[in-house]
Design a protein that fits this description.
250 residues; alpha+beta; Alpha-Beta Plaits; 3 domains; 3-stranded antiparallel sheet; 6 helices; 8 strands
């Protein structure tokens, strides 16, 4: 067994090394705690005073309730200033505009036009421009515009009511209407004076060019115009707000 004189010097050397390390670690922990607390008691003793919290929230709720009562009184006062006649006139104006805006259903005699692509076998055998044998958005728009020009009171495409903000877009081999894609055949129905619509559809120059491509040998695009004794154009139920792109800041 080693003597006491041999053990003690070794122990002294260990403590001389360990003691500074313990002090250094303790200082580091104190520094981290101070930074995390940022000068605030980490236990948050102040936040556990529930009575103070309840009183503060109650006072704020009382202030908000009083503010709401004041605003309600202002609304009632402004409504009273309008008077029943003014409100009635506004409601009449809204009702008057709903019909031409396409927000009410329409029923009556109509003309139906159906446009369709050429058969696939005809398109495969065709040696000209492939786009000659498919229906495009401008063809559909031309039909709808001709019906409007003839005084149609309502127009639908694929059963959807057209309004002033309706967009018709060609995407691949489909046409998108109000954000929904549709495949041919495309059925356009106009409600109104049948004789006027048929005359306009027959003489429209864009549609006359379209009909030239129905006579392509082997099969071209199709055109069918049929009078309907009665048709229904449902009220428009989509979004009325316009959305548009805006430039990014900077």
């Amino acid at each position: 067994m080693p003597s006491e004189s041999h053990v003690r010097p070794g122990r002294r050397r260990v403590w001389r090394v360990a003691t500074p390390l313990v002090v250094l670690l303790s200082g580091t922990l104190f520094a981290v705690s101070a930074k995390q607390s940022d000068g605030i008691d980490l236990r948050g003793g102040r936040l556990t005073d529930l009575a103070s919290v309840v009183r503060a929230e109650r006072d704020e709720a009382g202030d908000l309730t009083a503010r709401a009562a004041t605003l309600n009184a202002e609304v009632e006062a402004l409504s009273a200033q309008l008077g029943d006649r003014s409100v009635g006139r506004v409601q009449e104006q809204i009702a008057t505009l709903e019909d031409p805006a396409g927000l009410t259903a329409k029923t009556g005699p109509a003309v139906q036009v159906t446009l369709d692509d050429a058969p696939m076998e005809a398109r495969l055998a065709y040696e000209g421009e492939p786009n000659d044998l498919v229906v495009h958005q401008q063809d559909i728009q031309a039909v709808a515009n001709a019906m409007w020009n003839a005084g149609a009171v309502a127009v639908t495409i694929q059963g959807q009511r057209l309004i002033s903000t309706t967009g018709i877009k060609c995407e691949g081999n489909q046409v998108t209407l109000n954000g929904l894609p549709y495949s041919p055949p495309y059925v356009i129905v106009g409600i109104g004076d049948q004789a006027q619509m048929e005359a306009e559809l027959t003489t429209d120059p864009i549609l006359a060019t379209y009909r030239d491509y129905t006579a392509i040998p082997g099969g071209g695009v199709s055109w069918d115009m049929t009078p309907l004794e009665s048709a229904v154009a449902p009220a428009y139920t989509g979004l009325l707000d316009l959305t548009y792109a805006t430039p990014m800041a900077g």
